[in-house]
């Protein structure tokens, strides 16, 4: 591309409303322009970087047998009602009406649409596994759109969905995608780390986020240097409270620790009120009441809970938690765990032995076991783990670093296939719900993340694979100098190398500054003085290394 003809509005000054480096540099380098809050245009230079990333993503996903398609961004609200997310997704969902007052939304993600597609088409286990993906514009009405394309309201995402016949198949599909993501981010030249993650509004069981390590990151990653544990702090905090597994659960007993003698203290002490999805569940094991912390709304509703004496939603402030306990059990005054035990015993006595109380008054579940049907931990266990500080695998002290979430993979299981009745016929001809996974990459965000990791005070230092242009020919002069530059330009183009020719009638200073800003990995300066010696000057943007190359050897050296 000739810079004299390119639509490349670079800026000398840093725009005032840009806080983080990638946002500043993307504006200054003429990669993006803002249309409205969280809404950006990708200019030719920016879009080239996006396209490079998309190519890498497609290659790696295609290698794993995934197939590209394109789903509509405009989605009927009725479909979201079917999955239950029309309400659950909350205000982040961009909602609109058509002229007939029918409700729609602009897709923030596509689990509903893809499930709707396959439920009508996939009939037999023979058609599985299946993995479909798209690269598309997503819409999310973020509370705080910021940092340029790192958190937009309209952004580009690659989303993939896998369909399997069973859990084993899902695990394989998940691993394939996990591996593909490692390949993608490695090829992009990014320093990244896959970490255990919470599943948020998408739902499901296991999940990993892919974090690009950078100070501008909004997420905090905790990791252990002694073992392989790494997690989003959000999850590590929740997990360290829910550590007891099935067999252990049966032996758990409430231990009255002197430090925490009331539920209220417990809530304050562990800062539980801040964790919306956690509920304190008081229930019974072997005649003993146990305080369990259960994560996730659906876990409570979907699994059959047993022997539940009470469930306190910790979304409430500590004060309200206390009041709620009060009204449910008729407590007065501060609640000691001992007292809870007594009242709990009484409550159980009132219930028939075979019936378990659920998380709503007058609702009961049958044939369920705590520990088997949900995870539990006791007050004693909670005390032992310093929330988010100790590794839950080996107990060593965790380290923290900041990360930008560039991708996330989820084992969805049957959440959407059950809700939308997407079934297939198994080997015995019996209908079964499809077992799903979903896998996202923030395409536009990844480009910004790459810049966060690769820049200096002068501009971007593109990793080779993402660079919009790999070589910039910086021409200082006209006549013979320009002729030589033109010759290189043609040669490089013939070799299939993306090359930018700075043929503008600008001062040398302007050209050098723009070259640093735009950040092509290889800069070749063609000036009269070195050309008289039959040479041109090469500078590598990543390392700053400079050397001269004979004109005759140019192509060989550049490649
Ligand atoms: P975040 O925690 O940053 O809000 P998310 O967990 O809500 O992200 P996912 O639903 O996992 O996002 O979507 C898949 C990917 O899409 C994310 O890993 C991220 O890279 C990208 N992404 C999500 N929201 C945005 C946004 N507002 N702007 C740009 N990219 C985004
Ligand atoms: Mg989000
Ligand atoms: Mg997230
Ligand atoms: Mg996510």
UniProtKB/TrEMBL annotation:
Highest taxon of source: Bacteria
Domain Aminoacyl-transfer RNA synthetases class-II family profile: start-end pairs: 33-463
Primary location recorded for the protein, binned into one broad class: cytoplasm
Catalytic activity line of the entry: tRNA(Pro) + L-proline + ATP = L-prolyl-tRNA(Pro) + AMP + diphosphate
Keyword Signal found: no
EC number: 6.1.1.15
GO molecular function, one term: transferase activity
Statement: the UniProt record of this protein carries the keyword Glycoprotein: no
Keywords: Aminoacyl-tRNA synthetase, ATP-binding, Cytoplasm, Ligase, Nucleotide-binding, Protein biosynthesis
Location in the cell: Cytoplasm
Entry's Gene Ontology BP terms: prolyl-tRNA aminoacylation
InterPro entries recorded: aa-tRNA-synt_IIb, aa-tRNA-synth_II, aa-tRNA-synth_II/BPL/LPL, Anticodon-bd, Anticodon-bd_dom_sf, Pro-tRNA-ligase_IIa, Pro-tRNA-synth_IIa_bac-type, Pro-tRNA-Synthase_IIa_type1
Assigned GO CC terms: cytosol
Subunit description: Homodimer.
Main function: Catalyzes the attachment of proline to tRNA(Pro) in a two-step reaction: proline is first activated by ATP to form Pro-AMP and then transferred to the acceptor end of tRNA(Pro). As ProRS can inadvertently accommodate and process non-cognate amino acids such as alanine and cysteine, to avoid such errors it has two additional distinct editing activities against alanine. One activity is designated as 'pretransfer' editing and involves the tRNA(Pro)-independent hydrolysis of activated Ala-AMP.
Family: Belongs to the class-II aminoacyl-tRNA synthetase family. ProS type 1 subfamily.
Entry comment, domain topic: Consists of three domains: the N-terminal catalytic domain, the editing domain and the C-terminal anticodon-binding domain.
Protein name: Proline--tRNA ligase
Source species: Halobacteroides halobius (strain ATCC 35273 / DSM 5150 / MD-1)
């Amino acid at each position: 591309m000739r810079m004299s003809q390119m639509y490349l509005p670079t800026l000398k000054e840093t725009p005032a409303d840009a806080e983080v480096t990638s946002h500043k540099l993307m504006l200054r380098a003429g990669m993006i322009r803002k249309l409205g809050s969280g809404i950006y245009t990708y200019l030719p230079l920016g879009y080239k970087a996006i396209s490079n990333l998309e190519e890498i993503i497609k290659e790696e996903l295609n290698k794993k047998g995934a197939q590209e398609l394109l789903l509509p961004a405009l989605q009927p609200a009725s479909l979201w009602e079917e999955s239950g997310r029309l309400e659950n997704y909350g205000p982040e969902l961009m909602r609109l009406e058509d002229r007939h007052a029918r409700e729609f939304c602009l897709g923030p993600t596509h689990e509903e649409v893809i499930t709707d597609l396959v439920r009508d088409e996939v009939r037999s286990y023979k058609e599985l596994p299946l993995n479909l993906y798209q690269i598309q514009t997503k819409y999310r009405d973020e509370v705080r759109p910021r940092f340029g394309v790192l958190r937009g309201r309209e952004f580009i995402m690659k989303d993939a969905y896998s369909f399997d016949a069973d859990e084993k198949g899902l695990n394989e599909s998940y691993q394939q995608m996990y591996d593909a993501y490692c390949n993608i981010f490695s090829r992009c030249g990014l320093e990244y780390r896959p970490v255990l993650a919470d599943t948020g509004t998408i739902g499901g069981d296991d999940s990993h986020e892919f974090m690009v390590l950078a100070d501008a990151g909004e997420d905090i990653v905790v990791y252990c240097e002694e073992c392989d544990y790494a997690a989003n702090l959000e999850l590590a905090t929740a997990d360290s409270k829910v550590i007891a597994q099935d067999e252990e659960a049966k032996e758990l007993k409430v231990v009255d620790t002197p430090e925490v003698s009331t539920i209220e203290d417990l809530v304050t002490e562990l800062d539980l009120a801040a964790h919306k999805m956690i509920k304190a569940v008081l229930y019974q094991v072997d005649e003993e009441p146990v305080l369990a912390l259960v994560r996730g709304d659906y876990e409570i509703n979907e699994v059959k809970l047993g022997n539940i004496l009470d469930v306190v939603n910790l979304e409430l402030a500590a004060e309200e938690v206390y009041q709620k306990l009060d009204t449910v059990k008729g407590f007065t005054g501060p609640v000691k765990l001992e007292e809870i035990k007594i009242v709990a015993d009484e409550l159980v006595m009132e219930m028939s032995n075979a019936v378990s109380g659920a998380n709503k008054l007058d609702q009961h579940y049958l044939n369920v076991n705590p520990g088997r049907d949900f995870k539990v931990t006791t007050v004693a266990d909670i005390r032992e783990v310093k929330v988010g500080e100790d590794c839950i695998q080996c107990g060593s002290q965790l380290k923290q670093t900041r990360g930008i979430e560039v991708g996330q993979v989820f084992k969805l299981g049957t959440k959407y296939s059950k809700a939308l009745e997407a079934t297939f016929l198994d080997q015995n001809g019996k209908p079964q719900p499809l077992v799903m996974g979903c896998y996202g990459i923030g395409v536009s965000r990844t480009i910004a993340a790459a810049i966060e990791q690769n820049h200096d005070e002068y501009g971007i230092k593109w990793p080779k694979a993402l660079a919009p242009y790999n070589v910039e020919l910086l021409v200082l002069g006209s006549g013979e100098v320009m002729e030589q530059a033109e010759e290189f330009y043609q040669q490089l183009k013939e070799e299939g190398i993306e090359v930018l020719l700075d043929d503008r009638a600008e001062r040398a200073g302007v050209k050098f500054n723009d070259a640093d800003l735009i950040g092509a990995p290889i800069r070749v300066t063609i000036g009269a003085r070195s050309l008289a010696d039959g040479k041109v000057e090469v500078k590598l943007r990543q390392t700053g290394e400079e050397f001269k190359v004979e004109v005759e050897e140019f192509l060989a050296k550049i490649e």
